[in-house]
Structures are given as C-alpha cells and as structure tokens.
Amino acid sequence: MIKKFLRGASCTMLALLLVLLLIPQPVQAAGASLSGSSSIQAGNTVTLTLSVPNSIYGLTADLSYSSNLSFTNYNCSVSGWSILVNNNKFSAYGTSSASGGVIVIKLKVSGSAKEGDELSASFTSVTVSDGNSDTDLGTASWSGKVGAAPSGDCALSSLSCGNATLSPSFTSKTTYYSCTVPFAVTKLDLNYKKSDSGASVSVSGNDELAVGANTVTIKVTAANGETRTYTIEVTREQDPNYKPSTNGKLSALTIEGASLSPRFSAAVTDYIAYVPYETTSITLAAQAADEKAKGVNGIGTVQLSTAEAETLVTVTGVAEDGKSTQVYTIHVLRMPAYTGIIPTVEVIDPATIPSVPPLEIPGVLELPLVGEVKTLYVAIAAAVLLVVILFLLGFLIGRGSGGRDDDYDDDDRQPPEDVQPILPYSTGSVPRLVPREETEPHPVKEPVHTVPVPQPQEETPPQPEKTKPAVDEPTQADEDQVRTMSLEDLLDDIHNM
C-alpha cells in the first residue's frame, strides 16, 4: 500500500514539474545597468546611459530620480531604433538587434545643491524582448554626490626671467611687463608658478625672438575655465655690427579718388594729379619700400587750396637710420567749375623749356611763348627763308633773260620760219630755253643776164597776207602754277640749264 502511494506521489510531482516547464514564465535576471559620472558640481549636467547585456529587439523601463535633479534631454543610442517617452516611461524598439547602451538621458544638478549632497536616478521594471519572449532585468540604478565647485583661480604666484629683468616687479594682479635683451638672446628663460595646481599654463611668442619688438604671452586657465593672460613686451637689441639702411624710397603712393601722372615709380619723385572742382581735400596713402624704414610723413587727409589753384603736397619716406629721407612731390590741381563750356587745361612742364635767356631789345616788348620757341625766333627764321626764295627767283629770271639776249637780236635778226616759237607756260611747267640747231649756209648763185621776153600778162588772184603764228598768252592758271612752284623745283630747273 505504501509503495503504491509513493509511486503515485512521484508520478504526480513529475507531471506537475512538466506542466511548469511547459508554461512560459518571465525570467528575472540581473544585467541592466545605469552608468554616469559619480561626482558632479552644482548647476552642471550629468549624462546617464542605460545598458543591457544581451541582444534585444525592444526595451521598456520607468525613470525616477532625486529631487535635486531635473530631466533635460534623452535619445536612443541604437541606430535605426525609435524611442517614445510618456510620463517618464520609456519604450525603445527596432527591427535590428542591439546590445550595450540603448537609452541616454541627461539630468541637471540643482544650482542650490551643496557639496556632499546625494544624487540618485534609476530605471525600474526594465523589460527586454528578444523577439520571442520578454525578460525582466529588474532595476538599473545610479548614485553620486555633489562635488566641490571647481576653482576659478587663474593667477600666477610668481614670474621671472633668468636672462632678463621684468619691469615692473611681479605681482599676481599685474598682467603687463616689459624687458630688453641683448642681440645674443633669442628666447626668454621663463620661471613661473601657478596659484592653483588644477590650473593649466600655455606660453606663446617665445620660440624665436626677432630683432626689435616682440610679444610673449603666458595664458593661465583655471579649473572652471576662467583665464588670465600675462603679457611681456620684449625688445631684442640690434646686432652691434649691423648698419641701418639709408633707403627712404616708397613702394606705393596713392590718392583716394584721383590718379598720379605719371604712374607711380619709386625712382620718380615729381607728380601731378587733377581732382574735380568740388573736391576740397584729398587722402594720401603710402608704403615704404624698406620694411625696416622708420615710417612715412605727409600722408593722411590734406586740405586743398582755393578753387582752380595748385596745392603742393610732399610725402617723405624716412629710412631705417632715421636720417636719410626721400621726398615725393605732388602738384594737385582742382579743375575749373563747369559752366556749360568744357574747360581746357594747358600745363607746361618747366623741364621741357630750354634755359635760353630772353633776347633783350630796347623798346621791344618780350613776345609770348608759342610752344617751346619764342615768336621772335620764328619771325627771324621766316624772314631768312623769304630772302633765300627771292634771291633764287631773281637768279632764275636773270639767267633766263640773259640767254635770250645771246641767241636773238630783236633789231637785226628774226628766227627762221622753220623754227617753232616756244610757247611759255603752255605745258603747265616752268619754261625752259632750248638752243637752236646749226644749219648749213645756202650757196650763192651767180646772176644770169637774160633778155626779157614780153609775155601776155594774166591777172593773178590776190594772195592772202601771211600772218605770224599765234602765240598763246599765259593764262591765270599758268601764273598760279608758277607761283605755287616749290623751292626744290626751282633748284632743279637751275641745275638743268
């Protein structure tokens, strides 16, 4: 009987166990965690991350935190997942599995929190799903304390140079100093201490000191981010063997709203510039050709003289040695006021006028300039040229009349009938004398005496009187042609005679 009872009880317990195994039950397992900084200052923000150990496709959890914290922001750290928040209840899910950090939240510490105050936050009822079943991971908690406020001390407690003397003497509140070092010194040997060990220090401008002015800065950054900068103006002396430059020339010279003529060149020192009538002042700008030059004088705003008057402006470049200079001169001219007639401007460069003393003639007024030569000189040259022309014309006429007297005698001889008369001016060119050709003399026949035999007389018709061939009279065009002959043509005719 007992054996039957035990056997029946065993079967019953085995059946119950099988039933329990077949019924799905939520699994409670540890592993969810909430992590973040454990020490944080009042008024700052703490970032907390909820993580799970296994691959999941979804998560739900309830957020709670202490009163000295306030919820500010959240996001899902899994790419492709969505997150929903409703009254501090979080739900995150996606089509791909994820593990590790899933939800990120930000909580701000109250500004009234004091050092040592406890801080806490937690996700309760953290339930994850692997796609088939849900798993309860319990609660994920975080706790921390309000830490001490970071120091705002950004001062130096000491500052000195091993190879220079700072002026004035160091104090933590004095931030500007100066010093002079010899040419051989290329870097300051700085020695300093921080007032707060949590601060950081950075130095700039001390790598390679140049000859002349240099700026070295020491920047101190406190733990809370505040900064203070100490400045040292360092003057490095010149090489004792160095000879300063004497170059005072300019590399650029401009006038605002006007142009220089000629175009600027460092070698040209004299210029002219035209400005409108309405312009009463100009602004000059210049740049020294030598970067070590002391500077340029005369630049800036310059007031102009009265209307239509010249204003002489000088710009001086001072060389590095401080003594050598280069002066540039600008003649600034205001244009006449426009009254409906376009004004003309005539400028005579004195350099182009020859330095000839004026001709002093008693009782004669000095003549005005015509271009670059005086009118008197032009008149003298014209008179000399006229005398030469008259002389050549007289010589030509005299030569022509003399030749005609040698060849012909108007009282005793007449030209033979077979010689054609020369018609003056008939061809439109200067007439020329043509010598006659020599002919053989006609033989003289002895007279033969015969007895005249009377013949019946017949009436002969009257013969027309012979007339001399007509000679064309010179026309006005021919005379004009002669008058317009050049000196060169006259000389050619004289040479050909």
Label this structure with key terms.
about 35% strand; alpha+beta; 24 strands; 9-stranded mixed beta sheet; about 500 residues; Immunoglobulin-like; 4-stranded mixed beta sheet
Structural summary, described in words:
- The chain has helices at 2-22, 375-407, 476-483, 487-496, and strands at 27-28, 33-35, 39-40, 45-65, 69-76, 82-86, 89-109, 118-129, 134-146, 156-161, 176-181, 190-194, 200-204, 212-221, 227-236, 250-255, 270-275, 281-288, 295-297, 300-303, 310-318, 325-334, 369-370, 373-374.
- The protein has 497 residues and is an alpha+beta fold.
- Among the domains are: 27-146, Sandwich (Immunoglobulin-like); 156-236, Immunoglobulin-like; 250-334, Immunoglobulin-like (Sandwich), CATH 2.60.40.
- It starts with a helix and ends with a helix.
* Low confidence ranges: 19-29, 405-412, 419-439, 444-453, 466-471
Distance between termini?
Answer: 185 Å
Shape: elongated
User: What name does the CATH topology of the domain at 27-146 carry?
Assistant: Immunoglobulin-like
> What string, H for helix and E for strand, traces the elements in order?
HEEEEEEEEEEEEEEEEEEEEEEEEHHH
- Let me know the largest β-sheet: 9 strands, mixed
